[in-house]
Amino acid sequence: MNFSFPHNWPRTKREAYIIQKEAADKISLLPDIDTPKLIAAVDTAYGYGGETVYASAVVTTFPEIEEIERFSRFGPVKFPYVPGLLFFREGPVILEALAGLQHEPDIIIVHGHGIAHPHGCGMASHIGVLCDKPTIGCCRKLLNSGYHRPVQTQKGSFQPVLFKGKEVGIAYRSKDNVKPIFISPGYKCSMEQARDIIIRNLRGYRLPEPLRLAHLSANTFKRYIEKKQNSHHLR
DNA sequence: GCGACAG
DNA sequence: ATCTTGTCGC
Predict the structure, then answer these.
(1) How does pLDDT run across A35-83, given as a tens digit for each residue?
(2) Is the CB of A5 under 7 A from strand C?
(3) Domains, chain A, ranges and CATH?
């Protein structure tokens, strides 16, 4: 992928909130495309001790969902985990993984929130703004910025997630009797399109297949690097 | 002031 | 997220 990489990364929460606000003002939820042909998904894994973050970007075809490319990068963690500021912790390495992709995806699924976020700008939205590429946020928990009515236990059931009187996402039951997942538009994507694409990318697991592949890839990459570093260290 | 809080 | 063993259930 080709996009301009951010140069100034915040070192404090205060600086991060300012940057996040600037990104929030650039969010558009007008759909950019209709049916995607290529979908990218990104996820991370943390190294032993938690001082290194590994990120993988996987590209799959749609609607077949066959992996055609993956690219991984790792680097030192430079920002603490602060709920609501996940982008500043994982974003740097995720963007490097995306930048290394040869194929140009039509939309990106991010393991995190889109607009279902205290300031309306979760990691998925922030990544979309920087790449100028449609994004969808998909994860397993809600931040304290949304609530929903109970979701029926059958797969396919869902409830809107509301925050400050607005629908910011949906709680979706992707498997019978398994806790719902949370879907929210990130950037250049509507609520309906976000839901439709995630649903059509489910393959029997709680999370959509592209995200599951990215998760597995990040962990495989992590074990590969850590093993290599261990053997190199024993000389 | 306290609690809740993606990964 | 990570560390960590067994264990309950489909």
Answers:
(1) 999 999 999 999 988 999 999 999 999 999 999 999 999 999 999 999 9
(2) no
(3) 13-145+183-233 (3.30.2170.10)
